[in-house]
Specification:
Number of strands: 16
Distance between the termini: 64 Å
Largest sheet: 6 strands, mixed
Radius of gyration: 27 Å
Strand content: 15-25%
């Protein structure tokens, strides 16, 4: 190296958003109320950051400040290298042209087609020619799955499709920042998942930074980083999840101790039950991701109560006489269950060798089996019937997969009430329930196995 040569070092990319000590107030005089307290964080180019927190915690206020839709009062807020506090109108306008906005309400213009709504985002100079604008709009609408709806008006589209148009509009001009405020709040589970997956993939392809406000625990996995606000202050996500989950688990444990959970779940509609399953499995999943579970008898007991209530409810929804959950114990080569098969009944300790019977076959193959006549099927093991005095007629059995996509449990329904056998619709529903309940069941299995190891030592 020559004397005096300059050694260049790799520099970290400049943050596209940087907040330092931001405070914000609403109202004046005696009605003045502080909403944000010393909020500080940065968002890097191409990074997807999710902002969580309870209602009224200041999430939307932060988003509108970053978007230049509200004036910064105290602290420093830099967006794309421009200080927004006391910024001139021209500076704010220039920053806004590099930001794509997606809100809970799609905010489409009803009198314009999907293509025309997307073209509303082409505000940068020079504005593309009409044929170029049409092509660009069609390309982004195709990317969000709306190739066949480019000329449709908003009233001709579903809620999920309208939100896709809003995403296309936000991303069409290739903005450097995407601001999304509760984009899945008005959508069902599948539509919401589709929307965030599209947003994630396109944002990553374009290198756009994304700041997304949400209450939806089901979409947290798309984030590179999660920031939590509570009462206008930044808070550790671990502390927040732990507090929220402990409150939820305490409530469920209370119902379990009083014997009320199974009764409460029994009276729910199928829709209410599905929503509760989503919430419980989502909370348990977060809990396991954030902390290392200890050998807690209370937690294990709570999970066992939840599983028992859920198992009975699944049997009720699918009109089965009995429902059972088997855990796969590979080291011992058995399937075992301690979940009660009927309301008010004592839990049966059932142990079946892996590879034997209907459940054992499902555990080995990962296939769903629908058996209209158990005694005519060579896989059926009659020993449990002989031991319990129960007469099995029809069987529907489905695998439950762990986080590694391996079969670690089996859900089994016996005897369709009022019918000779379970049908294809029952198979679909059982698959869906098996997916949802897998998170809770895997947690229970881990806790139960830890307990058994502790006892044998």
């Amino acid at each position: 190296m020559a004397l005096g040569a300059v050694v260049e070092t790799e520099r970290a990319p400049e943050a596209v958003v940087a907040l330092h000590g931001v405070n914000h107030y609403f109202g004046h005089g005696t009605l003045r109320k502080q909403i944000l307290f010393d909020v500080s964080f940065e968002v890097q180019p191409g990074e997807i950051v999710i902002l969580t927190g309870p209602s009224g915690s200041g999430k939307t206020t932060v988003l509108t400040l970053i978007g230049g839709l509200r004036s910064t009062q105290e602290g420093s807020l830099t967006v794309l290298g421009q200080e927004l506090r006391s910024a001139a109108p021209g500076t704010l306008e220039a920053v806004r042209k590099n930001i794509g906005y997606i809100f809970q309400a799609h905010n489409l213009l009803d009198s314009l087609t999907a293509t025309q709504n997307v073209e509303m985002s082409f505000v940068k100079d020079p504005r593309p020619a009409k044929n170029v604008a049409d092509r660009m709009a069609h390309e982004i609408l195709t990317a969000v799955g709306l190739a066949e709806h480019v000329n449709a008006y908003p009233h001709q589209l579903s809620g999920g499709q309208r939100q896709r148009v809003a995403i296309a509009r936000a991303l069409a001009s290739k903005p450097k920042i995407i601001l999304a405020d509760e984009p899945t709040a008005s959508l069902d589970k599948k539509s919401g998942r589709d929307v965030v997956d599209i947003m994630h993939d396109l944002a990553k392809q374009q290198g756009s930074a994304v700041l997304l406000v949400t209450h939806d625990n089901r979409i947290l996995d798309i984030a590179d980083r999660i920031i939590h606000l509570e009462d206008g202050r930044m808070k550790s996500l671990q502390d927040a999840v732990l507090a929220n989950t402990q409150q939820m688990l305490a409530t469920l444990a209370q119902y379990n101790r009083k014997g009320e959970l199974a009764h409460r779940v029994k009276d729910m509609s199928s829709t209410q039950f599905a929503e509760m399953m989503d919430k419980v499995t989502g909370e348990v999943q977060q809990f396991l991701q954030v902390i290392s579970m200890s050998n807690s008898d209370t937690f294990e007991s709570m999970l066992e109560g939840v599983l028992e209530a859920f198992t009975l409810k699944i049997g009720q929804v699918l009109n089965a006489d009995r429902a059972t959950l088997f855990l796969v114990d590979e080291p011992r080569g058995i399937l075992w269950s301690k979940v009660a098969q009927g309301e008010g009944e004592k839990a049966l300790d059932i142990r079946v060798p892996i590879g034997e019977g209907i459940a054992g076959h499902v555990a080995q193959t990962g296939e769903v089996l629908n058996i209209p006549d158990a005694y005519e099927n060579p896989l059926f093991n009659r020993d449990v019937d002989k031991r319990t005095g129960y007469r099995t007629k029809s069987i529907l059995c489905a695998p439950i997969l762990d986080t590694q996509k391996r079969t670690f449990a089996v859900a089994q329904l016996l005897n369709k009430k009022g019918h000779d056998a379970f049908d294809a619709g029952d198979e679909t529903k059982l698959r869906e329930f098996a997916t949802s309940i897998g998170v809770v069941l895997e947690s229970w299995a881990q806790m139960s196995r830890r307990h058994e190891v502790a006892v044998t030592r």
